[in-house]
Write a structure and sequence with these properties.
The protein is mainly alpha-helical. It has a single domain (about 5-230), classed as Heme Oxygenase, Chain A. It has 11 helices and no strands. It has helices at about 5-20, 25-35, 40-65, 70-85, 90-100, 105-110, 120-135, 135-140, 150-165, 175-195, 200-230. About 35% of the residues are buried.
Length: about 250
């Protein structure tokens, strides 16, 4: 039997997964943050990423439905509120739709999830099923991509502000808020995983869950690259440039 890693060594193992596999390494993000995306490539990213954003509260609700510990449910509940909003917080989903309007898309079209790439839908739905069906430890471990999110949000804010006319504080409010929200979520989630992954087998399960989540994020960008950086490969039913624009918005 292999002994479990120490708490510090296991955390280092999880962080190495992000260093090697997080989607900030994907060429689409380098293209986006560097100002090299066309307006339609940005719109395609906003449309497809919305499907992920709108699915996160459903993922978290599926997780909470399986949790018997009220303390864990109470701690996890804020994640749903951060996305869906409350009376005092408009929530991440509405902020993302503001970004959609800023890039010239009709918010109702984006919210309908019409035109989402098949690969995006498959990847995000697979993540929701993973959290619904796997162990609580694996479900929480999969959320730990938030460990690596502040870096990409900061890079995105800087790159979009420098390179795109649509970018302003209102359009980028989603990312600015996640800089405040994500550290709270990940501090709790990381501590919970480190506490509960107390055998080598459990640590392996948790690490594989985090790898699965990085694959979910990476595959969404692969789909965008294949469909819109090389436009001849847009699959049937997916968004096409010129569709779903806000009134008065110009096609690229």
């Amino acid at each position: 039997m292999t002994d479990a890693l120490s708490r510090a060594d296991f955390e280092a193992r999880l962080r190495r997964i992000g260093a090697e596999r997080y989607h900030d390494l994907h060429p689409f993000h380098h293209r986006l943050h560097g100002g090299d995306c066309s307006p339609d490539e940005v719109r395609a990213w906003v449309i497809n990423r919305y499907y992920y954003q709108h699915s996160i509260p459903m993922k978290d609700a599926a997780f909470m439905s399986r949790v018997e510990d009220p303390d864990l449910r109470r701690a996890w509940r804020s994640r749903i509120e951060d996305h869906d909003g409350t009376e005092t917080n408009e929530g991440g989903i509405r902020r993302w739709l503001r970004l959609a309007e800023a890039v010239g898309l009709d918010r109702d079209y984006v919210a309908s999830c019409e035109g989402v790439l098949p690969a995006t839908r498959f990847a995000v739905d697979a993540y929701v099923r993973f959290v619904r069906d796997k162990s609580l430890l694996e479900a929480v471990a999969a959320s730990l991509t938030e460990l690596f999110a502040p870096k990409i949000h900061a890079s995105r804010i800087e790159g979009l502000l420098q390179n795109y006319a649509f970018a302003d504080d209102a359009a980028l409010s989603y990312f600015r808020n996640r800089l405040k929200e994500a550290p709270k979520d990940v501090a709790f989630g990381l501590a919970w995983v480190l506490d509960h992954a107390d055998t080598a087998e459990k640590q392996d399960h948790a690490a594989r869950a985090l790898i699965f989540k990085t694959d979910v994020l990476w595959s969404q960008l692969d789909a965008l690259w294949g469909a819109y950086v090389d436009p001849a490969r847009i699959p049937p039913g997916a968004w096409r440039p010129g569709e779903g624009l806000a009134p008065g918005a110009e096609a690229a």
